[in-house]
Design the sequence.
């Protein structure tokens, strides 16, 4: 799943670390590459039931042994979901997977999310797992940034997910990663870029030949922290209806640091 935007017209189509692990990746999801197995252990696959089988629809991020953050637009009250942790190749049973069913009453979409106005922001949801994740090398919670933290222009972040490899292209079995430099609000809000569509509660990244695409929604924007570990700064939200990797239309993410209070309050109450 991924939201596509062009100007104000919306088209919906079918985007603290355990052990403080750090990674050193090549300078390289559209025009990405295969991730190293289990190098992003907080990445999850959100899957929905259809005709007796579960199919990948969105990504997400494990932020606690009991909680996942994803995009609000990934959630439909008419669907039955499961979360798969510790997966790498969706087509192969690798022995690291943890499949956890989800109760719809344990899905919390941000109260200000408006499915008719993705550009209004608040595209974020929390999922409480029906049982706690077993943490290990293949499954670890992500570190989140401090409330209000803003990434600087050109910060080297990575999008990860099982989204399409090109606009209307095939879905990969193997988890993909792509380097997406951050485009700060000053640049991303210029009229040749996203203009007034982008809000200060969002993060832009990319805008050249690499981007998120259909199936990456809800997944993480992984950015380096000062101590050499990673923090998840974004929830993949939307791309341009002109195509996933449209020039000057970076992938847009919900900025997690703008929602830390809501995340903490929701977890505390549930």
Sequence:
């Amino acid at each position: 799943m991924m939201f596509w935007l062009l100007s104000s017209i919306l088209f919906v189509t079918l985007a603290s670390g355990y052990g403080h692990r750090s990674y050193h990746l090549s300078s390289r999801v559209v025009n990405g590459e295969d991730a190293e197995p289990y190098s992003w252990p907080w990445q999850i696959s959100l899957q929905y039931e259809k005709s007796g089988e579960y199919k990948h629809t969105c990504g997400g991020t494990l932020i606690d042994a009991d909680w996942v953050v994803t995009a609000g637009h990934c959630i439909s009250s008419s669907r039955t979901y499961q979360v798969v942790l510790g997966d790498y190749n969706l087509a192969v049973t690798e022995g690291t997977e943890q499949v956890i069913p989800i109760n719809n009453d344990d899905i919390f979409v941000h109260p200000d999310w408006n499915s008719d106005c993705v550009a209004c922001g608040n595209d974020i949801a929390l999922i409480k797992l029906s049982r706690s994740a077993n943490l290990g090398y293949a499954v670890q919670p992500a570190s989140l940034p401090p409330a209000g933290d803003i990434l600087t222009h050109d910060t080297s972040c990575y999008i990860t997910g099982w989204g399409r490899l090109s606009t209307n292209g095939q879905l990969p079995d193997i988890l993909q990663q792509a380097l997406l430099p951050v485009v700060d609000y000053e640049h991303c809000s210029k009229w040749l870029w996203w203009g007034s569509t982008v809000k200060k509660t969002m993060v832009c990244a990319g805008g050249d030949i690499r981007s998120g695409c259909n199936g990456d929604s809800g997944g993480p924007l992984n950015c380096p922290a000062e101590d050499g570990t990673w923090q998840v700064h974004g929830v993949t939200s939307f791309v341009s209806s002109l195509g996933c990797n449209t020039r000057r239309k970076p992938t847009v993410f919900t900025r997690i640091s703008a929602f830390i209070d809501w995340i903490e309050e929701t977890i505390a109450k549930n």
Observations:
- Confidence is low (pLDDT under 50) at residues 4-28.
- DSSP finds two helices and 16 strands in the chain.
- Helices lie at 185-188, 260-269.
- The domain at 43-140+260-269 is CATH 2.40.10.10 (Thrombin, subunit H).
